[in-house]
Amino acid sequence: MPQKVVIPAPLRKYTAGAEIVELEAETIQGIIDGLETRFPGIRSGICESSGSLRRFINIYVDGEDVRFLSNLETAVRDGAEIAIVPAIAGG
Which of 5, 12, 37, 61 has a C-alpha 20 to 30 A away from that of 86? Predict the structure, then answer.
């Protein structure tokens, strides 16, 4: 069963405006790889050139921040919801 990936507005330029994309993968790294295969260029909005998550990008699996789990190696179950959330700063 595919996972649902919620795409934030700033990255929808890569997905032709799609807010939700369905993919199948075993880990968050697999989800990012799948997104890049399907939507070339999207990885640069999510990851640094080193491959790690950008500082102001958070990814949640069923509401849990992957930085407090296994980061990019976090397992994703069938039917999970993955949310890519850009951090908002201001004052």
Answer: 37
pLDDT tens digits along 28-63: 999 999 999 999 999 999 999 999 999 999 999 999
Q: What is the CATH number of the domain that holds 75?
A: 3.10.20.30
- Quick check: is 55 in a domain? yes
Contact 76, 26 (CB under 8 A): yes
> 10-18 long-range contacts, Cβ below 8 Å, gap at least 24?
10/45, 10/86, 11/42, 11/45, 11/46, 11/84, 14/39, 14/40, 14/41, 14/42, 14/45, 15/39, 15/42
